[in-house]
Amino acid sequence: ADLDTFIARLPKAELHLHIEGSLEPELMFALAQRNGVTIPFASVEEVRAAYSFTRLQDFLDIYYAGADVLRTARDFHDLAAAYFDRTAADGVVHAEIMFDPQTHTARGVSFDTVMEGLLSAVAEAEAKHGMTVKLILCFLRHLSEEEAFATLEQARPWLDRITAVGLDSSELGHPPEKFARVFADARALGLRLVAHAGEEGPPEYVHQALDLLDVDRLDHGNRSLEDPVLTARLARTGMTLTVCPLSNLKLCVVNDMADHPIDHMLRQGLRATINSDDPAYFGGYVADNYRAAAAARGLDRRDLATLARNSFLGSFLPDDAVAAHL
Ligand code: ES4
Ligand code: ZN
Q1: Rounded to two decimals, what is the model's pTM?
Q2: I want to staple 213 with a disulfide (CB 3.0 to 4.6 A). Which of 174, 183, 243, 318 is the partner?
Q3: Domain 3-24+72-325, CATH 3.20.20.140 — does that match?
Q4: What positions does the entry give for substrate binding (predicted)?
Q5: What tens digit of pLDDT does each residue of 239-298 get?
């Protein structure tokens, strides 16, 4: 088989996916119509044309605007069901998906509505595709510590169906230390911990995610490579990095895919994985990200198999389930 087929057939886990970032323009229009919501675009083409970003914040402004069409449990179900169908076709057999409850509760959509819709789609996908799914509740780091604590409180009735908490949104100016106490409480509640760090933020933010949040996994982590001591520490401790090549290109974390450090990460012994982040906004799902990275950096089948293996090793599946995927 050719490399594209090899990638599509390679069983993979996706560990870095914002479900709101899987909202395709076609579904955005359909939900706007169904809910009688006005969106600032006249056509699907106009939406896609607006997806040109020079930094993280440009993207976030459009991403939060798009999420406004999500109102009912059925909307969240349809959003997630579309993602599971699409990603199953890419050879994803396990997905750990992030959601941003504060984006919705701020608009009067209840935490419970979000959970009901997502969980019904999860149950359907597990039956239909034989995949496994875990949920990661993300706190928006541009909001306050107090608001994060309130969100954790709303999550309490659902904690047996939430695997981890994460930290996303505008990184610069909102270092991990702002959420150290929230993460300590989440840990005490039995949750696993992840955080975006070193996407736009400096290596110091990665240090904070490790030392002050005690994360189990790092989302992005690209800028760790600027600090050789930090890089060696990440390699030595087997920390998983959830790298997102097409996201990095679209948000100008790298200027060209030819400059992407994914192969350097592997050669330095980092447990790097490949993920799609916000596939509807960044131009591809997980197999597209493997293909783009492979083409730009000359990854061979062995590298691609290592990346897929890393995705299971870095997952929150129990050891026996990880072993069954290796
Ligand atoms: C995100 Cl790429 C990225 N970075 C930070 N926060 C996010 N939320 C959704 N996508
Ligand atoms: Zn992300």
Answers
A1: 0.98
A2: 183
A3: yes
A4: 278
A5: 999 999 999 999 999 999 999 999 999 999 999 999 999 999 999 999 999 999 999 999
